[in-house]
């Protein structure tokens, strides 16, 4: 009898556990809505977005006509995740029911006929980025790509693909390319995006021997390149139409480089120099052949210098499409500042050179790992692109928390801490009149060279917290099952003891 009851109890517990398990594994997204021009989500319509298409990528439709996929989790993979949607083979219009950061341990391979629509949400991609490889008809809108986790990582790589539109995105602090367009990718438009705190922003054509890249056609319009370093873009072969962009304070010897018979048309851009004045070069690195540059009605500010090179060899835009060119003016500059990029705020932060300083591709890291006494570090006050001219910082007051305060006109500084300790680092940003605009804080842990240089807090970031949670859940279920079984058996034993007097002797 006792065995019979025990078997029944085990079966009941297993059935309950199975039901709960399968409920947790059921997809939380649904594919019941079909996308038309009239369809909208959170007040953002498909038709309104597609009306903004321009340039070489003007024919893209993304997931139009496909189903709607609601991203319901920030998990890297699994049901309801961005990866589950983007790597699907069917046409999808992907929207977000969540806000936050999606931390990737490998790239998301975006398939054909996808719209990744971040409008109405606040989504940041970090760690790795997107790979659009051998795909066509892809739209990515209103996403921020912020900080690679290791060398050689692109925010977005477009390889052997066509009809791609990147619109109203932010790209910052990746270790390789911001947006790289290679291997005969064509009919691409990058519009209303912001790039900052980034070295190699945009490579278009990655091989001086790849003559097939002559088919590459890219449009860049209404983008904000803010204190980037180089490759804005760097072009080999192909045709690039650059109009109505705002370039501010590039950090390399030239913001743009074009070689290997590449053709670049620059019209009605605002080009504002800081320390570096040369804007464009018709040669690049060891590439053996020059590129061609044509310039029309650009606004050069603060001593910026830009020269044409054989403009007669540059393509004519009207042979391909008609563009809505606005005059290069202060009004256009302020409009790009105000509206380029995503529609949610980016925070200023203090960063330092990445510890892998000997890598080919360098990027920056948030203050975290300890700093060694007596070792020079380079610090940066990383400010997102200004939304208006009134936000422009001219004076940087660096308070290192050890009693030293240094005022400079540079957003970067080298410093050596002389004593170990925990310091609060503060940077006060001021305008040209000394009026405080913003204050940025960070914690600096300084150790002696003999101390352990490992940061204990950073080691937990790479652990599989989800696996740990699953393990504890499994243990809890097992313990609960044992407890219930023990109680049942004890109860049965007690009833038997009272009902059978002979068992007491």
List the helices and strands and how they pair.
Elements: H1 2-25, E1 40-41, E2 44-45, H2 46-50, E3 67-71, H3 82-86, E4 92-96, E5 100-103, E6 108-109, E7 114-117, E8 123-127, E9 130-133, E10 136-141, E11 144-148, E12 156-159, E13 162-167, E14 170-172, E15 179-182, E16 186-191, E17 194-196, E18 203-204, E19 217-221, E20 224-226, E21 234-236, E22 239-243, E23 246-248, E24 256-259, E25 263-267, E26 270-272, E27 280-281, E28 292-296, E29 299-301, H4 330-339, E30 349-353, E31 364-366, E32 371-372, E33 377-382, E34 395-399, E35 405-408, E36 412-415, E37 421-430, E38 436-447, H5 456-459, H6 465-499
- What's the CATH class label of the largest domain? Mainly Beta
What spatial form do the alpha-carbon principal axes imply?
Answer: globular
Q: Compute the gyration radius: what is it?
A: 28 Å
Please give the number of β-strands. 38
Q: Tell me which CATH architecture of the largest domain applies here.
A: 3 Solenoid
Supply the number of structural domains.
3
The major pleated sheet works out as: 10 strands, parallel
According to CATH, the homologous superfamily of the largest domain is: Single-stranded right-handed beta-helix, Pectin lyase-like
| Tally of separate helices | 6
Strand order of the largest sheet: 3-4-7-10-13-16-19-22-25-28
Provide an overview of this structure:
- Helix 1 packs antiparallel against helix 6 (465-499).
- The chain has 3 domains: 1-28 and 476-505, no CATH class; 29-339, Single-stranded right-handed beta-helix, Pectin lyase-like (Pectate Lyase C-like, 3 Solenoid), CATH 2.160.20; 349-452, Sandwich (Immunoglobulin-like).
- The chain contains 6 helices and 38 strands.
- 16% of the residues lie in helices and 32% in strands.
- By secondary structure, the chain is an alpha/beta fold.
- It has a 10-stranded parallel sheet with strand order 3-4-7-10-13-16-19-22-25-28. It has a 9-stranded parallel sheet with strand order 5-8-11-14-17-20-23-26-29, covered by helices on one side.
